[in-house]
Each structure stands twice: as C-alpha cells, then as structure tokens.
Prior knowledge:
Elements: H1 3-11, E1 14-16, H2 18-33, E2 47-50, E3 56-59, E4 71-77, H3 93-104, E5 109-116, E6 120-122, H4 126-134, E7 140-144, E8 147-149, H5 151-156, E9 161-164, E10 170-172, H6 184-189, H7 214-241, E11 253-254, H8 256-262, E12 267-268, H9 271-295, H10 299-305, E13 312-314, E14 317-319, H11 322-384, H12 393-404
Parallel strand pairs: 4-5, 5-7, 7-9, 8-10, 9-12
Antiparallel strand pairs: 1-6, 2-3, 2-4, 10-11, 13-14
Amino acid sequence: MSTxxxxxxxxxxxxxxxxxxxxxxxMLSNLLSKNQLPKASEQKDFVRVLNIDDSEENINDxxxxxxxxxxxxIYEIKHxxxxxxxxxxxxxxxxxxxxxxxxxxxxxxxxxxxxIDSGGGQAVNTPExxxxxxxxxxxxxxxxxxxLASAAYYIAAGTDYIIAQKRAHAIGSIGTMTVYVxxxxxxxxxxxxxxxxxxxxxxxxxxxxxQEDREKRVALIVQKHLDPFNEEFLQHIKSSRxxxxxxxxxxxxxxxxxxxxxxxxxxIGTLQDAIEKxxxxxxxxxxxxxxxxxxxxxxxxxxxxxxxxxxxxxDKGTYLNAQQLQDLEANMASSAKALxxxxxxxxIALDAKATEIDGLQQTNTDLEAKQTATTTFLAEIAQSIGxxxxxxxxxxxxxxxxxxxQPGTTHTGTGEDPDAQQNADYNFKSSIYQTK
Length: 436
C-alpha cells in the first residue's frame, strides 16, 4: 500500500453506510498496528462479457476482447469505493474508469452492466466517476442485489438505468460523514511527545484542529469540509435522478420497494433484466446515430430551439434529450426575461410619448384660448368704432384711418383758458370738444 493511498484513506470524508463503515475498521487497525506497510500486489478486478450466444468469457483486457458483436460487459463492484487501488484488495475508481475507457473502442461491446454490492466509501474521486459515467458513450445500467449505498449509489446515479433485486436491502444512504481519530493514546503508548509549532503569521494554519473546544472543532469540520462535499452530492443526485423527495436525500437507506417509490431506482428485477436493458438502450443509440445526420440538416430548427447538438430520433419520431430540454428551458427563460425587459422599455417609451402629447395638447389649448381672447378683443374694438363685431382686420384698420382724418384728432388750447388742455377730460367747454 502506497503512502499516497494511506493519506487518501485517513484524510478524506466518506460517503458510506454506517454498518459498512464497521467493516472497514479492522483494515485501519491493521494498518496502524503493523510495523511495515503491506507489500503492494497487482490489482485485478473482475469483468466478464456475456456474448450474444449466451457464452461468457472472463477478461482483463477488454479493449482486445474477441467477444461477438452485441456483447454486454458485466463489471462487478462488490467492495468499498476507494480512489486508489488497495493492496491485496479492490481496485479504486481511477482504475475502474481506466477499464471502462478501454471498452469504449471495442465495437463488439454494446454496453456495460455495473453489478454493484457496496455500502459506499471515500468521497474523493466519487463525484468524478459520477460525471464520467454521465458522459459515457455507451449504455451503462446498474444492477444491485444487496447494498447500493452512499458512494456506491453516487456512482449508480451516473448510469442510464438502475435495477435492484427485490431483496436488495440498503439503497440510498445519501449523505456524508467523516471519522476523526484521536491518536494521543497511540503516541503516548509508543513514547512520542508531539508539539505543533507554527510561524508567527500562520494564524489560520490548521485552524480547525487547533481548536481546544471539541464542539467548536466539530462545528467547523461540518461547515468547512462535510457540508460542501454533501451539497455537491445532493445536487448531482437531484440532477441526474430528477429527485424532489427530500426524505430520500437525508441519509436514510431503503429496501427495493421503497427505493422504487421514491425514484432512487427505475425497476425491480434481475441481472438478466439489466443485461436486456443495455441491449435495448444500445439499439436506441444505434437508431439515434442513424438519424443524427438527418436531424442535423435542420439548422433553422436548431437555431430556433437554441440547441447545440442535433435532435435525437428513433422509429417513433424526433425527440429532445434531457440536456437539450434543460438548454431549451434555459433559452426560454432567457427569452422570457428579454421579452419582459423589452415590454418594460416599451412602456417607458409610451409613457414618455404620452407625456409629450399631453404637453402639446396643453400648448394647443393655450393657443386656442389666446386666439379666442384676440377675436373677442377685435370684436369689441369693431363695435366701439361703429362696425359689426365680425368685421375683419382690414375693415377695422380702414375705419381707424378714417377716424384719424376727422376733427379732434389733435388737441388745441385757448389763451383765455390755459388749463383747458389739462382739464380736457372734464371741461366740456374746452376747445377739443368745439367744432369749426
């Protein structure tokens, strides 16, 4: 066992069923009690290929298997989930993905069945394997006849379909935990005195482990380490399985019937059902491949729907896959937001235009009022100079000119009455009222 593996095992959070965790403790005890690390040995996992003629072959090199066309590979994962290969034990997720990689190029293998019986394991690298399976180009179906818990379920949720045998007894256990071991007694027993010394400015170095108050230390571990791992776990499961039942996401495990009801699995069945499901999905994939060229010849449709990939199709018609539906939903939400913004901008423009029109109408009203006042004033002038009230301006001007030529247009005074001009407004004997 490498030191890298030891660090991985002892330092990372776990996605693991509590009962399954108990089975891992002897390994930890053995690891701490040995004076030397176990010698690493070649790791072998178990892959068998079921051929179309019902014959089987156990293989190590799946890339060069001589299996017949239409074969299904059955990959057993009946152990804890680890990132790295274990000495004299199971292989890690990195090796599992390498083996699955080798099957991509084998055209005779149409798909994979992951035969899983596991209570979970390490959190590290399990999300990566989940994402890897989501993008795997061939159909992958999970089958379990025992435990499909925590990290094991995390892996299964990345596959295309999940089938559990009717007596499968621990499905789900979706949650995150860790175990912190107090090595103080171990060190003291072996004569060690451990002092931790930090640089002056390293005030946050190992901040959590330096907390003397256990409750505060535990709270920080949950907040800084466990919750982020768990949140990603939950989001992946919700997305890949379309789960909305919060009870299924709280860490509880279920039997097959309960798991089916809550949407954790797709079917209760057998390993043979899982194999047949791979064949069925493989045929759908082939039909989709045959029609991809046809659907890709619809650029306007793709542009209208905002699709980045070609529509899928089978003998029943053309369809949108899950990712395309999500993309379409996002595009529709974006378009709805853009429409809402455009409508708001249009309303603002209309309100501004209405305000402008109201201003012009008020100006027009004011002008009409002034015109009415002017007409009334001219009518009064016309009547005061002996014309009809509707006389036009030309007639008024002519009448005024005529009146200007009559006596009395200028004031004259007399020598006998020097104040006559001054008092003309009330002295009727003044010369301005006299005619020649």
